[in-house]
Design a protein that fits this description.
Pectate Lyase C-like, ten-stranded parallel β-sheet
């Protein structure tokens, strides 16, 4: 939805100003609860910009300088350039032919060897006949059109780097069949499990402003030594196992994994894994959790998790109030899991563990300041695709 430029610029200033204050019913580094405030107090009347959106959404010329979006990432995926240094590629044909991709289709652009910034000339629903296996240095940019990948296999990011997916809906994904990949059709895959987005042994990936729901397996998997990932401004709903970070309890190469999960809305109908982490590091910051059926944040194999400035609303089920779940019965108290300045409602609570620093240790270019948790409902209000209009600020 388009918004006037002045309020958007003011909201960016408000985020930085508000970050200097401390509010009640939050957890600090020492884990404490104060007298809770009513949930209705935090219901926003209008959206505010987070630090990613303030980078580009107030600009009415976004459509003539699309590749500037690549400069707006934060956190561990900050360096993801996507197709910033390539040509603009137009998708005008929603059909799909995995064996012989046609120019003008999404698949043809996504598998090219050269960097490309992929955009869409019109609204479309793309039903893939097999998984879309992307090449390096690609951006899928849905701004200016309503784009869905649905009712078939979905997106695989495997053994590549510098991929951005922005502003599309991916839902009702199904398992893929064994098939071929790359422009020369020389890479053979054994199929996929039905994830919406699978990130496998890949680096510098940014998933932003997408809608994800109702897939056969997970909505986003980050596995097999993938790292330098940011997952931001997405809207997750109606799914069981939402987000998996780490392949298995035996795959120790995932110790290098670093993922930033920021400004997402975990909405209705979600059960667990928001995220579930193995071995690596997850900075879970400024997300809104609208209940869950089992738990919100879980893990095994000694991952490190910092929950910072999140907005947790527990379900009414008295047995599901805990935000956290360790997938072991013992030997987890040394794991570094911390809650800092989170807000909790409806008796939600976070069980911390471990000693020593849990900071993400971002580089100067990756660093961003978390907004106060009370602002999270406003800065996640426009999570998901933005449906921008050419010539107007988003």
């Amino acid at each position: 939805m388009a918004t006037s430029t002045t309020p958007l610029l003011l909201s960016c200033f408000m985020v930085h100003l508000a970050s200097t204050f401390v509010f009640a019913h939050s957890t600090g580094n020492n884990y404490y609860n104060n007298t809770p405030q009513p949930l209705s107090k935090y219901i926003p009347k209008k959206p505010l910009l987070n630090v990613i959106d303030s980078c580009w959404r107030a600009r009415p010329n976004w459509s003539s300088n699309r590749q500037a979006l690549a400069d707006c990432a934060i956190g561990f995926g900050k360096e993801a350039t996507g197709g910033k240094y390539g040509a603009i590629y137009h998708v005008f044909d929603p059909s799909d032919d995995p064996a012989n991709p046609k120019p003008g289709t999404l698949r043809y652009g996504a598998i090219q060897n050269d960097p490309l910034w992929i955009i869409f000339d019109k609204d479309m629903v793309i039903t893939l006949k097999n998984e879309l296996i992307m090449s390096s240095n690609k951006t899928i940019d849905g701004r200016g059109a309503k784009v869905e990948i649905a009712d078939g296999p979905c997106v695989t990011i495997s053994n590549v780097s510098h991929v951005i997916i922005h502003g599309i809906s991916i839902h009702d994904c199904e398992p893929a069949k064994p098939g071929l990949n790359t422009p020369d059709h020389v890479g053979h895959r054994l199929g996929s499990d039905g994830d919406a987005i699978s990130i496998i042994d890949s680096t510098n990936v940014w998933i932003d402003h997408c809608f994800l729901a109702r897939s056969t397996d997970g909505l986003i998997d980050v596995i097999r030594a993938s790292t330098a990932i940011t997952i931001s401004n997405n809207y997750f709903t109606q799914h069981d196992k939402v987000m998996l970070l780490g392949h298995s309890d035996q795959f120790t190469k995932d110790k290098i994994m670093k993922v930033t999960i920021a400004f997402n809305q975990f909405a209705s109908g979600l059960t667990e894994r928001m995220p579930r982490v193995r071995f690596g590091y997850a900075h879970v910051v400024n997300n809104k959790y609208d209940e869950w059926k089992m738990y919100a944040i879980g893990g095994s194999a000694n991952p490190t998790i910092l929950s910072e400035g999140n907005f947790y609303v527990a379900p009414n089920d008295p047995n599901a109030k805990q935000v956290t779940k360790r997938e072991v019965k013992e030997n987890w108290k040394s794991w570094k899991w911390r809650s800092s300045k989170d807000l909790f409602f409806n008796d939600a609570y976070f069980v911390p563990s471990g000693v020593g620093s849990c900071a993400p240790n971002y580089s100067p270019t990756q660093y961003f300041a978390a907004a106060p948790a009370y602002m999270v409902p406003a800065i996640t209000l426009n999570a998901g695709p933005t449906y921008c209009t050419v010539g107007r600020a988003c």
